[in-house]
Amino acid sequence: MPEMLQNIDVQVFQWINSGMANPLFDAILPWCREKWFWMPAYWFIAAFSWLNFGKKGWIIILGMVMAAGLADYTSSTLIKKNVQRIRPCNDLQQFEKIIVRVPCGSGYSFTSSHAANHFAVAVFIIGIFGPVRKWVKPAALIWASIIAISQVYVGVHYPGDVIAGGLLGALIGWLVFISLRRWNPLIHSPKSSLQFFRN
């Protein structure tokens, strides 16, 4: 069973990495995986939280930092160093079939920390803002998915890496949201989560 999954993972990787290759993706997707590329979005969320909710807005900022930090630690330190899956761009048996669009790096592949970190932030944001702004959920999930797919397209992760990383991050993001909600009794449920910040 693991060998069959590995074969499927390689085939889907090759389809995304080579089969989907086009000049537009070549120009855009390597940028989409860069943290600083999204820095304006992070600053916008932080400024929006602070300006609209005053000093209570720091809880949203803290939650985002906690979600990303826990996801990164779990993926990079606890999982990658134990699983030790070689990145596709460092796998000499597959190298001739891979288009490497960014520096490969020497780290391990499973799970994708990029996917984990951004899905953690996305799900946390959905927990806070999603119930009152319906567009937040699809926007946040599409944003995190683009970053995850970019990791496969540039050749540094297998699809299984980003799927597992995304699921890990989503779980951590939701747990952080639930924890902050329980920490403050004024946040009773997702539907009333913003009521605390507005009061």
Question: Would you write up a description of this structure?
Answer:
- About 5% of the residues have low confidence.
- This protein has eight helices and no strands.
- By secondary structure, the protein is mainly alpha-helical.
Number of helices: 8
Low-confidence stretches: 185-193
Number of strands: 0
Q: Helicity level, as a percent range?
A: 55-70%
Q: Which structural class do you get from the secondary structure elements?
A: mainly alpha
- Listing every helix as H and every strand as E from the N terminus to the C terminus, the arrangement reads HHHHHHHH
Please tell me the overall pLDDT. Answer: 86
Gyration radius, in Å: 18 Å
**Distance N terminus to C terminus?**
54 Å
Q: Tell me the fraction of residues in β-strands, as a range.
A: under 5%
Shape estimate? globular
Largest sheet: none
Give me the secondary-structure topology.
Layout: H1 2-19, H2 23-32, H3 39-53, H4 58-83, H5 113-129, H6 136-153, H7 159-183, H8 193-198
Short description:
This protein is mainly alpha-helical. The chain has eight helices and no strands.
Features:
199 residues; mainly alpha; 8 helices; 68% helix; globular
